[in-house]
From TrEMBL, chain A:
Modification after translation: Binds 2 heme c groups covalently per subunit.
Catalytic activity: a quinol + 2 Fe(III)-[cytochrome c](out) = a quinone + 2 Fe(II)-[cytochrome c](out) + 2 H(+)(out)
Record GO cellular component, one term: plasma membrane
UniProt-listed InterPro entries: bc1_cytC-su (IPR009152), Cyt_c-like_dom (IPR009056), Cyt_c-like_dom_sf (IPR036909), Cytochrome_c_Oxidase_Subunit (IPR050597)
Organism: Streptomyces regalis
Principal location listed in the UniProt entry: membrane
Subunit structure: The cytochrome bc1 complex is composed of a cytochrome b (QcrB), the Rieske iron-sulfur protein (QcrA) and a diheme cytochrome c (QcrC) subunit.
Pfam families in alphabetical order: Cytochrom_C, Cytochrome_CBB3
The protein's Enzyme Commission number: 7.1.1.8
Name used for this protein in its record: Cytochrome bc1 complex cytochrome c subunit
Sequence intervals crossing the membrane: 243-262
Domain Cytochrome c, first and last residues per copy: 47-127, 143-221
Binding site for heme c 1: C60, C63, H64
TrEMBL record, chain B:
Descriptive protein name: Cytochrome bc1 complex cytochrome b subunit
Cell location: Cell membrane
Substrates-to-products reaction catalysed: a quinol + 2 Fe(III)-[cytochrome c](out) = a quinone + 2 Fe(II)-[cytochrome c](out) + 2 H(+)(out)
Phylogenetic placement of the source organism: Bacteria, Bacillati, Actinomycetota, Actinomycetes, Kitasatosporales
Cofactor(s) recorded in Swiss-Prot or TrEMBL: heme
Main localisation: membrane
Biological source species: Streptomyces regalis
UniProtKB/TrEMBL annotation, chain C:
GO MF term (any one): 2 iron, 2 sulfur cluster binding
Location in or out of the cell: Cell membrane
Cellular compartments per GO CC: plasma membrane
SUPFAM superfamilies: ISP domain
Pfam family, one: QcrA_N
Protein source organism: Streptomyces regalis
Keyword tags: 2Fe-2S, Cell membrane, Disulfide bond, Electron transport, Iron, Iron-sulfur, Membrane, Metal-binding, Oxidoreductase, Respiratory chain, Transmembrane, Transmembrane helix, Transport
Coiled coil feature spans: none
Broad class of where this protein is predominantly found: membrane
InterPro entries registered for this protein in UniProt: QcrA_N (IPR045603), Rieske_2Fe-2S (IPR017941), Rieske_2Fe-2S_sf (IPR036922), Rieske_Fe-S_prot (IPR014349)
Protein's name according to its UniProt entry: Cytochrome bc1 complex Rieske iron-sulfur subunit
Length: 270, 545, 349
């Protein structure tokens, strides 16, 4: 699974870069292009929204209402923004199973990135909200890892643990592990505050702060993280260390003690 | 100079070098008389008798590695900016204690290894003491003449807990700082003097700038000094009492059967030290412990989920987590029962197991020396009490990690907490009843074995068609071993009216004792072991299987 | 309560060690130590030689491991990390040093134990035990000596000496207790006050900028410190331990507690971040339920209802800080907390 998602990251990143490039050229073009071209852009945009609406009606409307106004089964989506849609759908949390437990878990995503973008465009058209972050925003360039660590311990560790291994909330809810979570999704989660997670908008946790946090997480909780002392034991602190000491430490001691105290094999009686 | 002296000195002068050194020492220290009693001291062989050695050796390892760590550790809370090898903390403000611990972990070659050996050895030290204590408990090795040594051992366990706690707090990292904050809250809850104690302990308000230095002297000097003394006393008493042994052929209450200290136990026990050290060193190469760099420096306004103490303090964490938040306000004062009650139950849990030997001695009224160990099944009530105590201890450990239980088994943390709340009262009772039943069942099986022999697994068809399993009679060794345990009779208070019709006053404590004695030793408390008559009746019967 | 009154017959009979042979009358008698059986090494010199070689091999392996330890120490850079399956990325030096040291020690131990088990005599020996209690003669002598000593000291007779000595011995430890006085200052009212006071701005912990109401969105979580408190300050740790603030914004309609609403600003409420149980920074805020959970001991507070305790061991609600907005549009405190923050204590009231 880890390998899969790691590989999937690359084409995804390529798509984002491509989109960026397209947007840039598009933007440049729009400045110089005749007005009718701009109109074509607009209609392309409305086409995307139209497509998104179709997807929405099939997959989301039963809970969130036909116009995204929300029902008793799901909150209003007016003003949640494209970032929220991208996070919820790409991590597989939405659409949710009809009978979920205390909290909607992440699962396999069933939409393509293009479909997610269409959905996001539709929801964004319902009311202004945070847009999907660009790689420039969550990428590692210019990030201060140490500052990120301090911010993480102040804002995130209380729920997600020192190095983002996750933790318990009330009544069966939980803060999920942050291992192998796409930096984009971490950024979006901070921005939008999915489910019971509070949001950390740019006004209180700046873009640079978010970048720092993501860089710190990559340093302490990724495939490349070095645990100098050896086995990480889940990174959960003294509980797993204690279990390990009892089972393997004391277990080895007892095994050795049994050998030391055991009687040596006797010569067979003839 | 007299003639005798010269001949003696000449004869000694001719002796080999080793002997001459020994002579020199004997003339000043009297080592020959000491060695006479101890050199060929007998130790019985049993793996469970080596658990105490695991504890002893890990204690020595802790002292050795601890001395090394003091060479590099700075017990100071001065704030410094970090500029060492560990990138994710570059430029962060932290105490010197924390930064010197990072220095040991990242910039002193082998420093991380010694730190990890020190910490793993500490966890194993406490675990080994715990298991050793349980071995002594369940085999009744605490009985006369070893009650004092039981108390020494118990004190070592308790002091070990606090030495561990103070050591865990020294690096001043975010996890241990949270633990110290918990301690401060607990101290504050003490009625009347709580705030004063807290201010004296921390040199003012929490966290202040003193506690690391203060914990340091407690951790490296005060507590280990007392423990070293107790360990020596503990070992002297083990030598003096001679080791206990399990019942078996040739083993009586008046002897001890095993191998001599020189050479077998010198090699086995000495070798075992290296084995224990080797295992812990390998463990420290493979498994990381207490990665303080991942936790970051302590800040009283920061925290991580999953904040737990090391395992030996886990049961106190369980106590504090399941307690409801009771608080009483009166006349301008606050009684913080939600914290103070767990703080009081904490020593009670420990004392309950510590005083048990004295309670049992009072119930049996037995004043003889005991050197033959009980099999746990042959003391059902004691075993049941021990298991009930352990179940409580274990439940509190679970309660101390309730958040991890919740996340890893997909439970509600509130449900886990409620389970511990109810289990605290129910589980020990259940464990007691079940354990006693199992012990009685095992006793019955032993009795059957003695009377009817061992089930051989061979099925035989009798002439009239009935199938029976052949029972083989036990060897004399087994017969003796299974019937060697002693059984008490329940204590009777006797008639409350004497022969002259005068009422005799029976004290309440005496009644209680009779009641307890009955619970321990009547038919519901133990299965009477086979008597000679029963055995003869069955074995003399013809054709009996 | 002595146990002298336990009748002898309640105690089990001492084992009869004199009967060594099982007979009609004593079917369970102790058959005595089983005869010694020889090990292979005792009768086969080749097996003994093999054992000797094994022991020597183990000791040699230990020497090699020590050489390996020194070689690793000298050659491996202290910051080199390697990937070891299945453990993961780890520090190469720690791994090498630990394994070689462990190997060196383990081999010494294993060699010694193997030697003891296979080549040293394994004949079991019985050692007599002697009662620990002294004989009556010894006891009588000790008691007599003690009485003699006590008499010669005249302690019992010269009561004045005895009483004053006890008095002196009982009093002098007080000096030690008095010496502990300067361990710390007296509490005074320090636990009742924090750095907050009227007009102090709420400074965002993350950006170190004062907060405006528009910065704080509904459903967001922000931590704040009082204006003027900087991380480099000498008293920072002690002050932040009391002054740390948790700021959330609720829909004013969701606020159930009247006072909470009054002390809030446009739905923005400021609560102490320090748990009232034992002082952990409580900040597991669930924005949908408005509950804040303490990660240490799971006390749960309802931030929409005066932060009252709804689960767990905390005894009272989180203290709320009364806030408003100053002329420049920044959030400011309208005074200190009205009750002590953090864990409860005797004088709290």
């Amino acid at each position: 699974m880890k390998k899969l998602s790691a590989r999937r990251r690359h084409p995804l990143a390529a798509v984002v870069v491509l989109l960026l490039a397209l947007a840039c050229t598009g933007g440049l073009y729009a400045v110089f292009a005749p007005a009718d071209k701009a109109q074509a852009e607009e209609s392309a945009q409305s086409l995307t929204i139209e497509e998104g609406k179709k997807l929405y009606t099939v997959g989301c409307a039963s809970c969130h209402g036909t116009g995204g106004q929300g029902t008793s089964d799901g909150p209003s989506l007016v003003g949640v923004g494209a970032a929220s849609v991208d996070f919820q759908v790409s991590t597989g949390r939405m659409p949710a199973a009809t009978s979920q437990g205390a909290q909607v878990p992440s699962k396999k995503n069933i939409y393509s990135q293009a479909e997610i973008d269409q959905l996001a465009a539709f929801i964004a058209s319902l009311g202004a909200g945070p847009s999907v972050p660009t790689e420039e925003q969550y990428g590692p360039e210019g990030a201060d890892i140490a500052k990120g660590g301090e911010l993480f311990r102040n804002n995130c560790a209380q729920c997600h643990n020192f190095t983002g291994k996750g933790g318990a909330l009330t009544h069966g809810k939980y803060a999920p592990t942050l291992e192998d979570v796409d930096p984009k999704h971490i950024y979006e989660a901070m921005q939008t505050g999915p489910q019971n997670m509070p949001s950390f908008p740019d006004t209180t946790l700046s873009e640079q702060n978010k970048k720092d946090i993501i860089a710190y997480l990559h340093a302490v909780n990724s495939d490349e993280t070095v645990n100098p002392g050896g086995l990480e034991l889940g990174g959960l602190g003294p509980v797993t260390e204690g279990l390990f000491a009892w089972i393997f430490g004391l277990g080895a001691m007892i095994a050795v003690a049994v050998w030391v105290a055991a009687r040596t094999a006797k010569a067979k009686k003839s | 100079m007299s003639t005798t002296e010269t001949t003696e000195s000449r004869s000694r002068g001719k002796a080999p070098a080793g002997e001459r050194v020994a002579d020199w020492a004997d003339g000043r220290l009297g080592i020959y008389s000491l060695a006479k009693a101890n050199m060929r001291k007998i130790f019985p062989d049993h793996w469970s008798f080596m658990l105490g050695e695991v504890a002893l050796y890990s204690f020595l390892i802790i002292i050795l590695t601890g001395v090394y760590l003091t060479l590099f550790f700075h017990p100071s809370m001065n704030e410094v900016e970090y500029h060492g090898s560990y990138v994710p903390l570059q430029g962060q403000l932290m105490s010197e204690a924390f930064s010197s611990t990072l220095h040991i972990s990242f910039d002193v070659r082998g420093g991380l290894l010694i730190r990890q050996i020190h910490h793993w050895a500490a966890l194993i030290f406490l675990a080994a003491m715990f298991v050793h204590m349980m071995r002594v408990f369940f085999t009744g090795a605490f009985r006369k003449p070893r009650e004092v040594n039981w108390l020494f051992g118990f004190l070592l366990f308790v002091l070990g807990m606090f030495t561990g706690f103070t050591g865990y707090s020294l690096p001043d990292d975010l996890l241990s700082g949270t633990g110290v904050r918990f301690m401060e809250g607990a101290v504050l809850s003490v009625p009347i003097v709580g705030t004063y104690l807290s201010f004296f302990l921390f040199g003012g308000e929490f966290p202040g700038t003193d506690f690391v230095a203060r914990f340091y002297s407690i951790h490296i000097l005060l507590l280990p000094g007392i423990m070293l003394g107790l360990v020596v006393a503990h070992l002297i008493l083990v030598f003096y009492h001679k080791h206990t042994q399990f019942a078996g052929p040739g083993k009586t209450n008046k002897n001890v059967v095993g191998m001599p200290l020189l050479p077998v136990y010198m090699a086995k026990a000495g070798g075992f030290f290296f084995l224990v050290f080797g295992v812990i060193a390998a463990l420290s190469a493979i498994a990381q412990i207490n990665p303080i760099w991942a936790m970051g420096p302590y800040r009283p306004d920061m925290v991580s989920t999953g904040a737990q103490p090391d395992w030996y303090m886990g049961f106190s964490e369980g106590l504090i987590r399941f307690m409801p938040g009771w608080e009483v306000n009166f006349w301008g004062h606050t009684l913080v029962l939600g914290v103070f009650i767990p703080l009081m139950i904490f020593p009670l849990v420990l004392v309950a197991i510590a005083v048990y030997p004295f309670i049992e001695a009072w119930i049996t009224g037995d004043k003889r020396e005991h050197h033959i160990l009980d099999r746990p099944r042959n003391a059902p009530t004691r075993t049941a009490f021990g298991v009930a105590w352990m179940s409580l201890y274990l439940l509190l450990l679970v309660g101390g990690g309730n958040d991890l239980w919740a996340t890893h088994f997909h439970l509600s943390i509130n449900a886990v907490t409620w389970f511990v709340r109810i289990g605290f009262f129910v589980l020990p009772v259940l464990a007691f009843i079940i354990t006693k039943r199992i012990c009685l069942g095992l006793q019955r099986r032993d009795k059957d074995k003695v009377l009817h022999g061992r089930e051989s697994g061979i099925i035989k068809r009798l002439p009239h068609g009935e199938f029976i399993e052949i029972h083989e009679p036990l060897s004399q060794d087994a017969l003796h071993t299974l019937t060697a345990h002693e059984q008490y009779k329940p204590l009777e208070i006797g008639p409350t009216v004497d022969e002259n019709g005068v009422e005799r006053k029976v004290k309440g404590s005496e009644k209680l004792r009779a009641k307890l004695s009955k619970a321990y030793f009547d038919e519901d408390g133990q299965i009477p072991k086979p008597t000679v008559e029963e055995y003869k009746e069955i074995t003399s019967g013809h054709g009996h299987h | 309560m002595s146990s002298q009154d336990i009748p002898e017959e309640n105690l089990p009979a001492e084992q009869d060690a004199t009967v060594a042979v099982a007979d009609e009358k004593h079917p369970f008698a102790d058959p005595g130590l089983p005869p010694h059986e020889h090990r292979i090494q005792d009768i086969d010199e080749r097996a003994a030689k093999r054992s000797e070689r094994t022991v020597a091999l183990l000791f040699t392996a230990s020497m090699l491991a020590t050489v390996g330890f020194i070689a690793s120490f000298v050659t491996i850079p202290h910051d080199k990390s390697i990937f070891v399956f299945p453990i993961g990325h780890l520090n190469a030096l720690n791994f090498a040093l630990g394994l070689t040291l462990g190997g060196a020690l383990f081999c010494i131990g294993a060699g010694a134990v193997h030697w003891a088990r296979t080549l040293m005599s394994d004949v079991e020996v019985a050692d007599e035990r002697h009662p620990i209690e002294a004989s009556p003669e010894v006891k009588a002598k000790v008691m007599a000596d003690f009485k003699q000593g006590a008499k010669e000291s005249a302690l019992g007779r010269r009561k004045l000496i005895r009483n004053t000595m006890f008095g002196a011995l009982a009093l002098f430890p007080l000096s030690g207790v008095v010496l502990l006085r300067d361990l710390g200052p007296l509490p005074g009212t320090k636990l009742r006050h924090t750095l907050w006071s009227k007009g102090k701005l709420l400074v965002n912990m993350n950006t170190n900028e004062p907060l405006r109401p528009s910065d704080v969105a509904v459903g967001s979580l922000t931590f704040a410190k009082p204006e003027g408190l900087e991380e480099h300050d000498h008293e920072f740790q002690t002050e932040i331990a009391k002054a740390a603030l948790m700021i959330v914004r609720l829909q004013p309609a969701d606020i159930k507690d009247k006072r909470e609403l009054e002390w809030s600003h446009e739905g923005i409420v400021a609560y102490s971040k320090i748990c009232t149980h034992v002082g952990c920074p409580i900040s597991l805020y669930e924005q949908q339920t408005h509950h804040a959970l303490c990660p240490c001991h799971q006390s749960t507070f309802d931030l929409a209802d005066g932060a009252r305790v709804i689960f767990g061991p905390a005894g009272h609600a989180l203290p709320q800080l009364r806030i408003g907005v100053n002329d420049e549009g920044y959030l400011e405190a309208l005074g200190d907390f009205e009750e002590p923050v953090g864990p409860a204590f005797w004088e709290r009231g």
